[in-house]
Structures are given as structure tokens and as C-alpha cells.
Amino acid sequence: MKRESVVLTTTDSNPASDIHRQLRGLIVSGQLGANERLPTVRQAASDLGVAPGTVAKAYKLLEQEGLVVSRTAAGTRVAESAALLPAAVMRRIRDLVDEASSTGSSVDDVVNVLRVVWPEISESSQSGA
């Protein structure tokens, strides 16, 4: 199965956070699978036009979350135990993204609504209501 190439972007405000957030999303969505190798720190820094320390910081954050494993001379790979969202959840997320983008809704608006609705639904499902 051929995988589409992954494109990362950064902002001037916090490139390490951007790299971390984007790679985290690729891992939890299953677009980067278990044992898949991430680019070397040097290669990613060159591709993104940032300092190697910036990429190293992002990789370290992923490692602290248990999403990647770094080994000297073996590089950084997605951890076997990286927590993926269930396929059913990913399908619903993709449907939500399709619907929201077709109506012109912004990512920020959708995320903000999810943050408000999540606790309400989570509490009602835990109480059995």
C-alpha cells in the first residue's frame, strides 16, 4: 500500500509546538503507523527550515507522551503502543470535517463547539441518562 507523503508546516510563533501537534495528529489518526520511521531530526529541520533543536523538542514531547520511541542509530519510530482512535471514531471525524467544510465552518469554530459539547455528553453518558 502506497502512503501519501506527509507535509508538515510551521508558524513563526511556535514551530516546535506546530510540529508536535501535526505529528501527534498523524499518529493518533493512524496515518503514521506503529514502527513507522519519522524523518531524522536533521532532515526534518532542513525540510521545514527550522533549527534541529526545534524538531528535537517536538520529538521529545512525542516521546514523553509515549507516541514515539527514539533509539540511537535507529532513529525515531512510532511506538507500538501509540494510542490510535478507533476506526469508527475516525470515520465520524472525517464525516464531521466533510460536513463542516462544505458549510464553510472554520476549524476553530468546530473545535470550540466540541470543547463545549464534550463535557455535557460525557457526563450524561456516564450517569446513564
TrEMBL record:
What are the record keywords, sorted?
A: DNA-binding, Pyridoxal phosphate, Transcription, Transcription regulation
Please list the residue ranges annotated as the HTH gntR-type domain.
Answer: 13-81
The protein's matches in InterPro entries, at most eight in alphabetical order, are given as:
HTH_trans_reg/aminotransferase, Tscrpt_reg_HTH_GntR, WH-like_DNA-bd_sf, WH_DNA-bd_sf
Spell out the PROSITE patterns in the cross-references. HTH_GNTR
Record-linked Pfam families: GntR
GO terms of molecular function: DNA binding; DNA-binding transcription factor activity
Q: What is this protein called?
A: HTH-type transcriptional repressor YtrA
